[in-house]
Amino acid sequence: MGRQAQAHVLMIAAPGQRYVAPLMKLEHRISDHNIKFTFVNSDFIHEIVVAALLDEAVARGRIRLVSIPDGLDPEDEGRDTTKLLGSIERVMPGHLTNLIEKVNVEDEQMQITCVISEIILGQWPMEVAEKMGIQKVFMRN
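Predicted structure:
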């Protein structure tokens, strides 16, 4: 008899501290209830978050920090919001799909059960979740 699957939420934040910080706070509160989290940022924002964060929940393994490319060159990061959001919409859906597939293959008891996305990212995270049969939630910050 196998062990019972644990809830595993993938949370994807819009780039920028104004979006990341509140989602991280929510994630920390919920992770206290034995829910596993995978927190997804763009590569650029991920480096900033990891450099600034050493947290007990991360250290205990309840929160996994990962990144996916946003399609911009590092020198373009944070300059032009319209260009960034357009690039994110073109590039990130495929990377998010690949990440979810990889996580779900690594441990069948820890498959992604819900995707929470910042509403400013648009519909694409919800479309990815729906195509993969995963529950989805928009968050407005």
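Summary: The first strand starts at residue 8 and ends at 12.
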